[in-house]
Amino acid sequence: MSELVIEKVWKEYGDQIVLEDVSLTVASRAFVALVGPSGCGKTTFLRMLLGQERPTRGAILLDGEPLPLEPGSDRGVVFQRYSVFPHLTVLGNVLLGREFSAARYKAKLFGAARRRAVDEARRLIGEVGLSGAEDKYPAQLSGGMQQRLALAQALIMKPKVLLLDEPFGALDPGIRAEIHTLMKRLWHETQMTVVMVTHDMREAFTLATRVVALERRRDRPEGKERYGATITKDISIWPPRLAGTPSIFSPDRDGPVASLGHCRDDLASSGEIQP
Ligand SMILES: Nc1ncnc2c1ncn2[C@@H]1O[C@H](COP(=O)(O)OP(=O)(O)OP(=O)(O)O)[C@@H](O)[C@H]1O
C-alpha cells in the first residue's frame, strides 16, 4: 500500500498564492503525470509531497498518516539534473542512501552489512543498465546514464513513492525513449506509486496511468499572484494500467514484461505471465 491523499492543499509564499485548494487521491501503484504551464506550481507541489515544503493549509496523507515533516526513505526523488553526487562513483552514489540510513553520522557501513549493501547496489546498477560503470564518476557518464544512476540511487531505499521532477527532460529523444522503457519496467517490478512532473505530453501519456493538469483558472496578468493553480483536468489513461499487472487490452505495450519487447523467462516460467 502506498496511497497518497492530498486534501484541500494551499501553498502561499508571502502574498503570492501558488496553489489553491488542490485535492487529489493517488492510488497505490498508480503513476500520475503532472502537467501544466511553467510557473504554475508543479515543482512546489512535488516538494510538498517530498516533505521539503509544507502546505500553508490542508493536509497530505501517505497511507492514512500525515506526511512526516522532512524527506524520508519512504519517498525517493529524481530531478532533471543534480540528483547524483559528482564526487562519488556510480557505486558510491547508489550506496549512499544505505550508508546514511545505517549510520547517520559516519555514513559508513562495515563488514557483512556493507557486503550486503554493495551486492544490492551492484544488482540495481545492473538493473538500470550500468554494469561495468561502477567505478566511474558522474562526469564520465552521458546524461542518460546519469539519470539511470539517479533512478538506482533512489530505488535502493525501496521508496513507497517515487517523485520525478522532469527527470528525462534534458535527454535526446532516442535516449528518452530507452529510459521510458526502463522506467516502465522498474515501475512494474517495484510496484511503487509514482508522481512525475513533465512538460512532455507524449511522455505523460506513454508512462502514466493518469494525467493531471494544474492551472490557474483565472489567469489575468493583474491577478497572477492572487490566484493559485488548481487541478483543472484529470484524465485516466485507457486502457487502464497498474504496476505489476499486464494490460489485458495491449499486453504487448503495457505490462511487466511488455516494455522489454519480449517476455522475461523467469516470469513466464513462474506462470505469472503468459509468453
Ligand atoms: N521558495 C520559494 N519562495 C518563494 N516563491 C517560490 C518558492 N518556490 C517557488 N516559488 C514560486 O512559486 C511559483 C511556482 O514555482 P514552481 O517552480 O513550483 O513552478 P513550476 O510549475 O514547477 O514551473 P516550471 O514548469 O517552470 O518548472 C513561482 O512563481 C515561483 O517563483
From TrEMBL:
User: Which key words are in the record?
Assistant: ATP-binding, Hydrolase, Nucleotide-binding, Transport
Q: Which PROSITE patterns match?
A: ABC_TRANSPORTER_1, ABC_TRANSPORTER_2
Region (Disordered), start-end ranges: 246-275
First and last residue of the signal peptide = none
What one GO molecular function would you report for this record? ATP hydrolysis activity
Q: What is its EC number?
A: 3.6.3.25
Q: Which residues form the ABC transporter domain?
A: 4-241
On the tree of life, the source organism's domain of life is Bacteria
Instruction: Please give one Pfam family short name.
Output: ABC_tran
InterPro entries reported in the protein's UniProt record: AAA+_ATPase, ABC_SmlMolc_Importer, ABC_transporter-like_ATP-bd, ABC_transporter-like_CS, P-loop_NTPase
Q: Which family does it belong to?
A: Belongs to the ABC transporter superfamily.
Its protein name is: NitT/TauT family transport system ATP-binding protein
The record lists the organism as: Rhizobium tibeticum
Q: Which gene encodes it?
A: cysA_2
